[in-house]
């Protein structure tokens, strides 16, 4: 029986996108078991007592109906749960979580049609509420950019901690005008029984995470066992480390 | 003997980052031979008469000294050449092109130390000069964001067509202030004998290309033979297609 902190599912493979969150966990002292996006869920994993489960670009078709029900039960019984966005998360292109038992326990309602929003102009992260996950991170002073997110609707009793705010940048002569557009829920937290739940609707890895990956005033080099090495920003690392520590009730 | 338009070297692998430029070429009717970033250069390729060579995250250590000289000779004799940025381009983390014969014929001077600049705040593409590569693309109206670039110095007689302009976005109450910072050469064109040469100092693929990948008012789905399928913006596709067609003197 595994006694790891986190069960991490998705983000393609440890040698590809999953190297990012794996690297963050590795340098934050968070232990994890991992399953890549192209492998069906292994029911034996449900016998382990993880503190939290991370689903990120792991299509719902990898689960059987009964596995999804058992996973939802685990969360009701005390395991934290986060879904991180991407083309195979929430509804997405291939996530298809809208009519699964996980949609019932996440803090957001999931659309029943493609919810992807790709943004080429500045999509800035905006702090909406104080929360231990974001304290001491300079969201106001140096707002980082992301490249897209899944559009979700926060449930009543959830808290929207961060939003993505869209700007259009246009140039006349040599000066730029930034026009503020719509904003979208980005980090939403909630509770399910005694468990903490969360949705982060952008990605932790390219391409949606985009410039956020380099957010920081220092560089962090990290590499989990069997994973691609990463070189990222220290605020990026701190932010995702905080999210996982909050889910596992360490902060 | 191959009669393809382009020799494309780098961007990891067709199943990973190289799927982007390969997809663009595929849907633009541009034929190419390809070599991934982890394979040494194959000298037999120099016997083909390509119209242009694309180097993108293909470390200089993949070439022998004599292969680099022969490639430089080919360019002097009429083959177009572009280097596209990344951690294994220009000097980068592992590009190491500063003291190669290619540094002599590219339109920019390459630093002899790490030239990578990762930017988490809005780094906008700014149009500096008219050029067939960028005509009809709305750089002014909808400036797209990139996530980083290699810092290079344009040579005399080169033309800087695009620059990357850095902004810091800060929030007070609910309103944002954008403060313009430095700008950096992004698309630089030149000539070498009868050949056209260019440097694009950001990446064509994640993570540096970031939000630029989705630039457009319509989506493009494309897939080159043996490559990962891509879904990108139509302006992104047009832009890189234009660059290659300019290098091969089709526009």
UniProtKB/TrEMBL annotation, chains A, B:
Family matches, as InterPro entries: Class_I_gatase-like, GATase1-like
Transmembrane residue ranges: none
Boundaries of every Putative glutamine amidotransferase domain copy: 58-215
A Pfam family matched in the record: GATase1_like
PANTHER family tied to this protein: BLL2462 PROTEIN
Protein name, as recorded: Putative membrane protein
Origin species: Sedimentisphaera salicampi
């Amino acid at each position: 029986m595994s006694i790891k902190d986190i069960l991490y599912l998705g983000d393609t493979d440890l040698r590809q996108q999953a190297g990012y969150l794996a690297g963050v966990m590795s340098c934050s002292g968070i232990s994890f078991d991992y399953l890549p996006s192209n492998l069906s869920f292994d029911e034996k994993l449900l016998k382990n007592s993880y503190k939290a489960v991370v689903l990120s670009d792991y299509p719902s078709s990898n689960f059987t109906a009964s596995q999804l029900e058992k996973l939802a039960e685990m969360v009701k019984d005390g395991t934290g749960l986060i879904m991180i966005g991407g083309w195979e998360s929430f509804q997405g292109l291939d996530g298809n979580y809208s009519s699964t038992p996980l949609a019932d326990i996440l803090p957001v309602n999931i659309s029943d049609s493609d919810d992807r929003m790709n943004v080429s102009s500045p999509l800035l992260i905006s702090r909406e509420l104080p929360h231990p996950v974001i304290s001491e991170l300079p969201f106001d002073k140096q707002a980082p950019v992301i490249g897209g997110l899944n559009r979700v609707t926060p449930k009543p009793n959830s808290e929207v901690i961060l939003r993505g705010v869209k700007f259009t940048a246009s140039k006349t002569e040599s000066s730029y005008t930034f026009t503020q557009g719509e904003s979208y829920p980005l980090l939403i937290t909630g509770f399910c029984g005694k468990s903490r739940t969360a949705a982060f609707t952008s990605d932790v890895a390219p391409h949606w995470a985009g410039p956020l990956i380099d957010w920081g005033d220092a560089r962090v080099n990290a590499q989990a066992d069997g994973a691609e090495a990463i070189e990222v920003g220290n605020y990026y690392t701190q932010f995702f480390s905080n999210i996982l520590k909050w889910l596992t009730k360490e902060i």
